[in-house]
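thought: fold this chain, then report.
action: predict
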Amino acid sequence: MLNGNYICKDVLEEHQKSSALDAVNSNSNTNNKEKKMVVKLFDVALDRTLTIVDFTLKTSQYVVATNFVIENYTNEKLVYVKMNVIHGEVPTDPRDIEPGEKLQFSSHKRSFATYGFCAIAIWQYKDRFIVVICQVPLTAVGGVNTLSIGITKPGVKYTNLTVPSDKSFEAHYKSIKTGLSSSDSHYKAFQDCGYSDSIQDISVEDRDITITGRMGTLKNCVVEIEIIPHREDDFAPQLIKHARDYANK
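observation:
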């Protein structure tokens, strides 16, 4: 449900993003130009108004590294539940994301490991969960960068969203995909995308929010996620105030 609160703007490859993320090496493709959704309220852009909580690292020293940027435009706290790391390391655990807050944190490949990074991150929104699944293989032989985002049905247990001890990640992921059309699926909505030579948005929604996301194509890349309310009154109070003040100038 994309209403008048959203527009598109140009976004360059990761090396042209804010240097605070420091997530891209010198081999980036400068011609890879894509569109990113930007949130507006009362025709006022909100992305620069978010409070930033930054746990990112200087990731250029790692062969595989991912910086996550999670933006909460809603008036609800996103309660951190779990980071189920299958491959790699997350030096600083994610945390709750307050209304109107942007959380940035890093991950990278383990030393001497033969795989890059793979993890499932979960936050609670009201009575349901927001799920972000990220895969960055070490080499092209292992596949392409893949991002998945999902929002569960109410009442699902978070333990049903992580990889069981007796199952591989691949088997768990396949069960998610094959079960989406079933009434037993834990997900209200789920979408994934592989990123090999271009960047595009994916999105899911339910009655309250839209979640959009994208990631870069390199082994040092950025994952961006936005959680956006459908109703104007459900934006974070400070974002509403900023938009109203600016619109009335």
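thought: worth noting. The CA atoms of residues 177 and 190 lie 9 Å apart.
final: tokens above.
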